[in-house]
Design brief:
Asp_trans, globular, L-aspartate:2-oxoglutarate aminotransferase activity, 2 domains, two-stranded parallel sheet, single chain, transferase, PyrdxlP-dep_Trfase_small, binds (2S)-2-hydroxybutanedioic acid, pyridoxal phosphate binding, Aspartate Aminotransferase, domain 2
Amino acid sequence: MTFTNFWAKVPQGPADPVLGVTEAFKRDPSDQKINVGVGAYRDEDGKPYVLDSVRKAEDILHQKKSDKEYLPITGLAQFLVLASELAYGKDSKPLQEGRIAVVQSISGTGALRIGFEFIRQFYPGPKNLYLPQPTWGAHASVVEASGLTVKRYRYFDAETIGLDFDGMKEDIEAAEEGSIFLLHACAQNPTGVDPTQEQWREISDIIKRKKHLAFFDMAYQGFASGDVDRDAYAVRYFVEQGHEIMLAQSFAKNLGLYGERAGTFSMVCASVDEKDRVLSQLKRVIRPLYSSPPLHPAQLVTVILSDPELYAEWLTEVKKMSDRINAMRERLYDLLVENQTPGEWGHIKKQIGMFSYTGLTPEQVDAMAKYAHIYMTRDGRISMAGLNEHNIKYFADAMSKAVKGELGLKSSM
Ligand code: LMR
């Protein structure tokens, strides 16, 4: 043991499965390069997009010249009310009865971390957290970092490129009673495949019968259908059915506030008294992690959600983003067919939300990066928002060649 070089044995960590793609993209000097890795919206020119409603809210905040005092550990009170109304619906019974414990979080990931930590400390059932197979690249590491055990349930059927509903039901049924199931509220990441409303009702029944805990991750409210209420269907239905759900809510995508880190963690409790006790413990989870949440993102969201005009403008903008993504789905499909790309590509049009789960193999993904400077996660997921009229033809040509095994052959790109 030497005390002169403390960190000599620190091994190199692997790149992050999602954010590592952006790092690789940034290192590539090519001017043809395309990043369809990270799920962040881009405009028609491939540029990051700040919503007009957000710009206006920033102006309002600037005029207000508010102070920079610490927020309470649980966050900005008005933000918490408005964010919960958006997720649960204004007429939600537990919301009206004041029995939803809600705290501000460092966006969706922070919300998951708070929830998992609370589970680790207080959950009376088995601390097995079931993730869909596949799921967002960072889910498992957040679960593991929180000391819970990762389990998987079947979700995606590679043959039908759709939901493996029977497999999913079987796995929920077979899990030890009282297990925890993480459910993507809408626009499942990475597959873009969601259960139908009827399927959600069946899932709710089984979870209830098996006394499992439903933990919803809602990172795309508004992005799936362009309608925030419709996208909250599963969350609201489960609550109506009496599930004491947990919910991670993110404003990264639907308000385009990626780097602002606005979100909430909430959980439905049986009574006001129980909620108060839960909140007292949530504070004890948060305080040693980061003391209290950031002020600015909560203020921004509050301005937008509390001003009827800005709120309406925001809804129009979410719809616009979701429509542009859908237009890109159509274009990509048409181009792949035009290029006589082997395979059936209808799923690209059918999938929901920001991503398409293309079915490209890891080797094809690698070839796309190496020979065409196109970057995506190794599971073949592409962020449709990274495509636009200027780059979609180049992208589709490269993808067709990758599928045909022609990328990298001389004169291929
Ligand atoms: C994604 O899946 O691309 C996003 O949720 C960004 C992230 O943090 O991984």
